[in-house]
Amino acid sequence: MKKRFAFLHSINFKIALSFILILIFTIEIIGAYFVRQLEEWNVSQFESNLVVPVYAMNRISENLNDNDKNTRKNINTTIQDFARNNSDITDIQVVDRNGVIVGTKDADRSAIIGRRTLKENIKQGISTNKKITQIYYDKNLGSSYESITPVSSPDNSTVVGAIYVKASMESVYQGISTIIVIFLTASLVAGLLGAIIAIFISRAITRPIGEMKQQAVRMAEGDYSGQVRVYSPDELGQLAMAVNDLSVKVEEATENSESERRRLDSVLTQMSDGVIATNRLGNITVINEMAREYLNKTEEEANGAQLVDILGIGDNTSFDELLENPEPMIIETTDFSDDEEDYDENDDNSLILNADFSLIQRNSGFISGMVCVLHDVTEQQKIDSERRQFVSNVSHELRTPLTSISSYIDALNNGAWKDQKLAPQFLNVTAEETDRMIRMIQDLLNLSRMDQGRSKLDKELVNFNEFFSYILDRFDMMLKKEKADAKEDDTKVVKNYRIKRIFTNKDLWVEIDTDKMTQVVDNIMNNAIKYSPDGGVITCRLLETNKHIIISVSDEGLGIPRKDIKKVFDRFYRVDKARSRKQGGTGLGLSISKEIVEQHKGRIWVNSAEGRGSTFYISLPFNPNETGGEWDEI
Ligand code: ADP
């Protein structure tokens, strides 16, 4: 329905309709005026033809004044003469002052002569001495005209009668009707021609406008390929040229902004920082991949969401507060691993992010949004906290032996030195604590050297089978010696243990720094002994795989709780601090061992179940084709 009458709303139709209406109105107004004027002119012309000529008037005046019957007869002749010249006249009556008809136009109506006139307006004309005219419709004649002209006496002193003239006006109106018909026909033809011209003109005007409209629609749809035809250099032609120009410029601008957008997109995607942009209400409009990854959100979840909610700070800070005070802040994301089975205290997925905020401001100062840049500072924060922890650990570790040394020296100072039994004991403890401190400082120095990469390996090709056996032999010897010493000195208590070896028979030639690797194996063995129960078995294994040799040391001790397993290689980490210290441990042995093994491109790890002992493993790179070569034979 709407479509069928759509043309009614087109400019084409409106211009044509206006044009036709103006034409019709103009023709009608001119026509009406013309017909009116024509009618007036014809009527006045008609009237002037009916005026009784002066000579006839004078004659009638004289005849009426005479009052003589014979002379009155002349009246008939006079009016018949007058009527003969005018075919429109249908009736003429001459009436004397008493209203008696004294003459008529038609001879066959002479019977009415001598009768009183019945026409009231004749009497009125005589009494008022005023000419009366009237146009009216007569049943028989159609449009008719009547005039009553009073007749004065020759000396103009009295009214002696009146002349009544009646005429048919049909000829006048017929003439006018004919002209009206001609005029209407001409108007119709002019109207039709005008309509055709109007349609052509409006088509000529609206065609370029229509083409421009179509081009604008294509442009809105992103098609800039078309060009509008320029029909003439008039205003519409100039508009068409402007549209073509605009089309080129819009295409260029769109291409520019498109390539800008692509560039921005690729910059945002490549960025190692997370970037989020919002509108002025704080709803996210742009979020790059990194930010989504940091916050663990999909694009659908993030787009349109509130910035403060996505950052998880919505409870404490509103977006308006952020706008007022866009200071950087540290945000901690929650741990996203929802797999309870896999939960591991050390395997924390939460991130620490530094969020920088800046306002998007227009030249007018109007704030149209905000940009938030997220930088992952988890590692940095971890290092910082480790550093702080390390300094606090070192201070604590050094303070403990120093406090104990200081209290023993105080006691000695206060007279204990005189006590033959206590003094050597006190000095002994002081010496032990000093030794432990020296060991710890030595360990710290070693670690620091390794951290700085200043500790170089002095490698040599060693048969690891022999090397490991040699160290274990030393431990066996040590135990033997301690046992022998204990036999002589009853006060000494020796912890008993047995070293069991499960070794491959093969020679395993590996390149190692023997001093440092000895330190590692010593440390593992010492720990195994330290944390083993009395009489426990320490099982040492040596085996090889394709590319590695693996040694393991298993004890039957307390084991290590699951949560501490990864941490035992951390500096100063001890499962039971008091116990470790009592046994002279520094808490640095395993971390030094780890550094050394990693310097050898190897790996160190531990398997343990609380209460069921621990097994420490070391794997080192190994080439099965490597042999001691000619040196073996010597
Ligand atoms: P420490 O000088 O305290 O022995 P380490 O770095 O050698 O320092 O060891 C770190 C911690 O690991 C120890 O304090 C102890 O709690 C634990 N540990 C090491 N070896 C064993 C083991 N064989 N059995 C049980 N716990 C052990």
Automatic annotation (TrEMBL):
Keyword annotations: ATP-binding, Cell membrane, Coiled coil, Kinase, Membrane, Nucleotide-binding, Phosphoprotein, Transferase, Transmembrane, Transmembrane helix, Two-component regulatory system
Transmembrane segments: 12-35, 176-201
Enzyme class, first EC level, given as a word: transferase
NAD in keyword set: no
Coiled coil among keywords: yes
Record localization: Cell membrane
Gene3D superfamilies xref list: 1.10.287.130, HAMP domain in histidine kinase, Histidine kinase-like ATPase, C-terminal domain, PAS domain
MF term (GO), any: kinase activity
Domain (Histidine kinase): residue spans on this chain: 393-624
Membrane topology (UniProt): Multi-pass membrane protein
SMART domains on file: HAMP, HATPase_c, HisKA, PAS
PROSITE patterns found in the cross-reference section: HAMP (PS50885), HIS_KIN (PS50109), PAS (PS50112)
EC number assigned by the record: 2.7.13.3
Coiled-coil stretches: 243-270
Record field: catalytic activity: ATP + protein L-histidine = ADP + protein N-phospho-L-histidine
Domain HAMP as annotated: residue spans: 203-255
Main subcellular location of this protein, as a coarse class: membrane
Domain PAS: 260-325
CDD domains, A to Z: HAMP, HATPase, HisKA, PAS, PDC1_HK_sensor
Pfam families in alphabetical order: Cache_WalK, HAMP, HATPase_c, HisKA, PAS_9
The protein's name in its UniProt record: histidine kinase
The species this protein was found in: Companilactobacillus mishanensis
